[in-house]
């Protein structure tokens, strides 16, 4: 966790320089729910948002958080309605309209299911998912391999 916070802090240094140069008083941060990093009901709005608020406060800028579905937060950044967001995975598409820090938290996709509802199946690779309903959330990040494989199931 400390490695995450340190790396995120480095990212914020660059953002703070921009905030100071623009003489900003308040920055609105579009964000969503991804505990423990960001969440409207979490203490400090989650680790990433708490750190962002403290970093901006250190240079006299108030951080205001606007919680929304991730897809909408992404649209806010793309359109310029919000100038900052926390807790994203960089993709080639998003790099066309946003600047990203280095990866702060390793990302991986996992399969989970209710074992009291699915008692006769164990994950043994993507092929073992054939014949099962698979869901995802619109606007969330899924790596390319996962998307490719799941589109064939």
Task: Quickly give the structural class.
Answer: alpha/beta
pLDDT averaged residue by residue: 78
Give the strand content. Answer: 5-15%
Poorly predicted runs of 5 or more residues:
1-7
| Major sheet description | 3 strands, parallel
Global morphology: elongated
The total count of strands amounts to 3
Number of helices: 5
Computed Rg: 18 Å
Oligomeric state: single chain
N-to-C span: 36 Å
DSSP helix fraction: 25-40%
String of helices and strands = HEHEHEHH
Q: Biggest sheet, strands in spatial order? A: 2-1-3
Description:
By secondary structure, this protein is α/β, with parallel strands linked by helices. The radius of gyration is 18 Å and the shape is elongated. It contains five helices and three strands, in the order H-E-H-E-H-E-H-H.
Task: Spell out the key features of this protein.
153 residues; alpha/beta; 3-stranded parallel beta sheet; elongated; disordered N terminus
Chain-wise SSE layout:
Blueprint: H1 2-21, E1 26-31, H2 47-58, E2 62-67, H3 70-79, E3 84-85, H4 92-95, H5 144-150
Parallel strand pairs: 1-2, 1-3
Helix pairs in contact: 1-2
Short description:
This protein has helices at 2-21, 47-58, 70-79, 92-95, 144-150, and strands spanning 26-31, 62-67, 84-85.
């Amino acid at each position: 966790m400390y490695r995450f916070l340190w790396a995120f802090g480095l990212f914020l240094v660059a953002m703070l320089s921009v905030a100071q140069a623009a003489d900003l008083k308040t920055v609105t941060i579009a964000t969503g729910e991804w505990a423990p990093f960001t969440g409207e009901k979490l203490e400090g709005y989650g680790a990433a948002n708490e750190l962002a608020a403290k970093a901006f406060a250190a240079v006299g800028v108030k951080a205001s958080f606007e919680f929304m579905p991730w897809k909408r937060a992404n649209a806010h950044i793309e359109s310029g309605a919000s100038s900052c967001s926390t807790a994203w995975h960089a993709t080639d598409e998003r790099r066309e309209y946003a600047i990203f820090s280095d990866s702060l938290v390793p990302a991986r996709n996992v399969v989970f299911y209710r074992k009291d509802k699915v008692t006769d199946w164990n994950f043994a690779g993507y092929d073992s998912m054939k014949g099962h309903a698979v869901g995802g959330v619109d606007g969330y990040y899924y790596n390319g391999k996962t998307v490719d494989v799941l589109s064939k199931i």
